[in-house]
Structure formats: C-alpha cells, structure tokens
Prior knowledge:
By secondary structure, this protein is mainly alpha-helical. The protein is 51% helix and 11% strand. The chain is built from 10 helices and 11 strands. β10 (155-158) and β11 (164-166) form a beta hairpin. α3 (50-68) crosses α4 (95-111), α5 packs antiparallel against α6 and α6 runs antiparallel to α8. The longest helix is centred in the C-terminal third of the chain and has 48 residues, at 254-301.
Amino acid sequence: MSLLDAGVPVVIIDLLYNWYNKLSYVVRWNDRLSEYFTAASGVRQGSCLSPAIFNVFMNLFIIRLRCLGVGCCISSIYVGCILYADDILLLSQTVNGLQSMLDKCVEVASILSLEFNVSKSHCVAIGKMCKNEIMPMNLNGNDVNWSDAIKYLGVYLQSDRCVKFDISHNKRNFYAACNSIFLHSHGVNEIALLHLQETYSLSVIMYAIPALSLTNRQVNESNICWNNVIRRLFGYHKWESVSALLLSLGRLSVRYLLMLRKVMFYIRLFIVTMLLFIIFFYCFYLVITMMIICLKVFSVVSPLP
C-alpha cells in the first residue's frame, strides 16, 4: 500500500512481490549451514534497493500524520514526525494532539503489519508546564509513561522548560573507553597512545555534540574530560594546564574542536546549497535553450500563409 501511495507503477510492485516471494534464506554457523527457510516480512540485508523500499514503506506514517492536521511545524514544513530507520519521534504542542498521533500510528502500523514495542516507548514534556502531572499516554491499549529524560539516537533529551541535553552518559562512556585503552597499553609510546585515545575515546565524548545546544558548563565539562586524559597520558598533575602541550602537539581542545566541526558543517551546507543553485540554473538554461531551438525549428518548417 505504501508503494501504491508513493505512485510506484503496479508492474514494478508486481515484480518486487514476485521477487521477494521467491527468496529463501540460510543461516551459516562456522562451516555448517541450516535448512533453507523463507521470510514473510522485511527487506534484503545489504541490497542497494532495500533502503529505498523501506523509506517508502515507513513514509506512510508521515503522510497520514500530516493529513491528521496535528503535530509541530516550522513555517510550512511538517516536523511532527521524525523517522530514522524504525525509530519514530512524534512532536506535538498538546497532549490531546499527541494522543491523536499515537492512535494514528497504531492504525498505520496495523495496515503495515507492524507492532510497537511499548517497553521502549517513552514520553517527555518540554515547556512551561513540564513539571505538571500528566496522565500516561495510550498506545494500542498500553500505557506510555512520562519520563524525566529519553534517549533518541544516542542523545539524552531532558524534560525542562526549554530544550536541554544530558551528557553525563557520554562522559561515563568516555571514561570507560579511556580506562580500557590505558589498561591494555602498558609500554606503548605516548604519541601512539594519544592516537588510540583520539580514535576510540574522543569520538565518544564528541558524539553529536556539534548538533546539540549545550550550555557553557557542559562544554567546559567535556573539555575537562579530555584534558584529564591528556594529563594522565603525559604525567601532568590535576592542577597543571595542558593548553601549551596541546598546541605543541598540534591538537585542539574540545571547545575548539566543537567550533571547528560546526564551521565545517556550515561550509559543507553552503557548498551543497550553491551546487543546488548551479544545477537549478543550468537546468533552467537548458530548458530555455531547448525552447528557443524548438521555436526556430517550428518557424522554419511552418508553411507560409
């Protein structure tokens, strides 16, 4: 049904149906193979066509929710439903609107033969009324409770008067990764160990940070975490500054790395925007050129009155 709503020709849908209906699978464990079996749902893993089919399949949620007339919008752009793979984030200004969106999602899921995992579903309130007691939401007859924080794509979003993020989990994971490297790196050169920490630990504390609106305190905390690793690596005391050491090594602090990544993001965004404008004007030029050529040909071949 999603493919039909997307305007995919019926002949293509019949081809895909016939193709997927004949697929069989086998599980390999070392040098042994299981018996062949078929799967009634899902797409082929690793196929270049699978992401496109899955996106069209899940797009039905966005279509139906937009037609419902509830959910958040930025200007005329509907952002009430944000999808990443099979993770769905619903944004609504009111509790009643959110319940309507949940009911619509259950309806669409039944059409697509999908089921929601209530144990992994949570609600969070952001705004002036976030501290008020709110009754649990209903998802297919099950209660979805309101939480103080939710995790979405590895980012923890807090319930507060404005949008706030919790980086304490990132800090714990960062120190765990650093300690694991230090534990198994006895006798390793400091520069090689620094490279290992930058590759496997720094990415943990920097995960998604350029996209988040963090407070100055949170940025300083992230910077302190990385500075502590540098101090332990090169034998500095806790009260000693490592700014000069980082400069001599040609490295940046977390604060400046954050600024650099944001600048690089805006540069790439500008380049992509300019490329789109160039492609648009080039296509416009080709269309105008073809129209002029067609008009000249028409005037040449047209008989005189």
